[in-house]
Amino acid sequence: MAPLRIVISNDDGVFADGIRTLAAAAAARGHHVTVVCPDQERSATGHGLTLQTPIRAERADELFVPGVTAWACSGTPADCMKLALNELLPEPPDLVMSGINHGPNLGTDVFCSGTVAAAMEGTLEGLPSIAVSSACFQWRQFQAAADLALEVAEASLKDQWKDNLLLNLNIPPCSKAEMGPLRWTRLSVRRYEEQFSRREDPRGRAYYWLAGEAVQDLESAGEGPRDWPSDVAQIHRNGPSLTPIQPDLFWRGPLKDLPSLPTP
Predict the structure, then answer these.
(1) In what order do the strands lie in the sheet with 241-245?
(2) Are 8 and 18 in contact (CB under 8 A)?
(3) What Å distances lie between residue 182 and 7, 81, 240, CA to CA?
(4) What is the mean pLDDT of the chain?
(5) Which pLDDT belongs to residue 43?
(6) Is 233 exposed, middle or buried (0-12, 13-18, 19+ CB in 10 A)?
(7) Contact 60, 79 (CB under 8 A)
(8) What residues form DSSP beta bridges with 33?
(9) Helices (H), 159-241
(10) Whose CA is closest to 187, among 207, 199, 169?
(11) Around Cβ 85, how many Cβ atoms within 10 Å?
(12) Is the pLDDT of residue 141 over 90?
């Protein structure tokens, strides 16, 4: 494959091991890599945009392997990708990548994921885009995930990446030798227990930490072929999960199931 122009972002920030491993792996394959990512952690910011304060961007090439151009930005992941595509890059990239996230982005959690939001910005601009996550917050070995993400992206480009297709790749926390085969998956429905932890400050005033634990549900999943496992079930089996996502959220159920409109 001819060298690609790749732009990479994340939500864990410019110092995260995941994004530096992905950028180094892409550069080692001969691709032209530009990183535009937050200057600090911006996890779970969803598709938030910065509207009330200016966005600043500073060069951070020294944090990456030689040959990678890098910018650290004060905004959200979505801000970073918008800035990259509209201001910082001299020409549109061939591929948008986001990650490698330090933790899973499974099921309906994609709605609050800054990692997925950065990739979605590429999809909205008509660019091939992939979000990549390591499905364990404690796992810190990212090379296998980086290699697989680039293999998936390169193969998908050769196979004519379709418009409005965002690929969401989650990698199980295990060695490459222990990893099962890559499979297409459906988005699971993620639910949480005890979502808030209530505490009191020294003055007796209540405050709350968002600290819920995901319910281990291997069956619940949304639309898609019935023979595809949910992404949660696939990760549970130590297999990489690849879920096709599109930005169109329009209702796909029977029209008769919609509520009746009120009459004057």
Answers:
(1) 57-59, 69-73, 32-38, 5-9, 95-102, 129-134, 166-171, 241-245, 183-184
(2) no
(3) 24, 28, 5
(4) 95
(5) 93
(6) buried
(7) no
(8) 6
(9) 231-236
(10) 169
(11) 19
(12) yes
Rounded Cα–Cα distance for residues 209 and 6 (Å): 37
Greatest C-alpha distance within the chain: 67
Structure tokens, 11: 């939500």
**Whole-number pLDDT of residue 223:** 84
Q: Does position 227 have pLDDT exceeding 90, yes or no?
A: yes
Distance CA 68, CA 263 (A): 60
Q: Which two tokens stand for residue 165?
A: 């297709």
Q: Is the pLDDT of residue 93 over 80?
A: yes
Report the 10 Å Cβ neighbour count for 150.
Answer: 22
On whether the pTM is more than 0.90, the answer is yes
Per-residue pLDDT of 14-60, as tens digits, reads: 999 999 999 999 999 999 999 999 999 999 999 999 999 999 999 99
Q: How confident is the model at residue 212 (pLDDT cuts 50, 70, 90)?
A: confident
Write out the two tokens for 182: 């890559």
- Residue 198 main-chain phi, psi, to 5 deg: -85, 135
Q: What is the rounded CA–CA span in Å between residue 90 and residue 84?
A: 9
Q: Identify each DSSP E strand in the chain by its residue range.
A: 5-9, 32-38, 57-59, 69-73, 95-102, 129-134, 166-171, 183-184, 192-193, 196-200, 206-210, 213-214, 241-245
Reported confidence tier of residue 253, pLDDT bands at 50, 70, 90: confident
Q: What share of the chain is helix, strand, coil (3-state, %, to 5)?
A: 25, 25, 50
